[in-house]
Amino acid sequence: MASNRRLEGRVAIVVGAGSSGPGWTTGKASAVLCAREGAQVVVADVDPRAAEETAEIIRLEGGRVLAVPCDATDAVQVERLAAETVSAFKRIDILIDTLSLPVEGRVVDVSAEDWQKAFAVNLSAAVTAMKAVIPVMAANGGGSIVNVSSIASHVATGPALAAFAASKAALNQVGRAAAIEHAGSKIRVNTVVPGFLKTGSSPCGAAKPGAVPLGDVGDAWDVAYAALYLASSEARFVTGIELVVDGGVTLKCG
Fold this sequence. Notes:
Protein name: SDR family oxidoreductase
Number of helices: 7
Strand order of the largest sheet: 3-2-1-4-5-6-7
CATH class: Alpha Beta
Radius of gyration: 17 Å
CATH topology: Rossmann fold
InterPro entries: NAD(P)-bd_dom_sf (IPR036291), SDR_fam (IPR002347)
Distance between the termini: 35 Å
Keywords: Oxidoreductase
Largest sheet: 7 strands, parallel
Family: Belongs to the short-chain dehydrogenases/reductases (SDR) family.
Number of domains: 1
CATH architecture: 3-Layer(aba) Sandwich
GO molecular function: oxidoreductase activity
């Protein structure tokens, strides 16, 4: 695959970079793409085997990679992740958080436990990761943070996804807040907002015929390339945005 080496010399942490099944998830694709673009990559996932599988792809392609098992909802493990990254590669330039837990249920049906779980994975884990890496980025003169949200944070996508939608909407707003709070440290914070995806686990469900103006659903690589742009110096003047990657779906129902 052709590469412009847009991340040459950078160190990137990708949270949720494993895959629970066959095929490509957004985290797995993002980690491999960062490596192909020259970054030294830290692959973080709650499943050690999944993290190692992604890391092995990067190694076989000649990239430098470190696999770190990490439950991103545990602040102690996330601090360890940041510390191991600095120990191995001396810096942190990029953080890409791809975690997504599609908890289902209407407002009147979703349990308190599921509600808390949705916010723990979809929001609090990203905040915890940002808190761990921002001081390191600031000390190094800047960095880029990319969080992955969902169009469910913008519009009703069909299924009963109250907790998922609310947690991802909160993630969008946290991205805006962090962007303005840390702009002075040259740390950019942006959000990718995917629509229907061929990942096998799209929280928005399956697209109905004709639902996508561009005529197809997206895949993990569409999200990964959006994250790559926001992580790269090509987006040096871009912060606090939500980059929607949905084939035009929200133009129809937004």
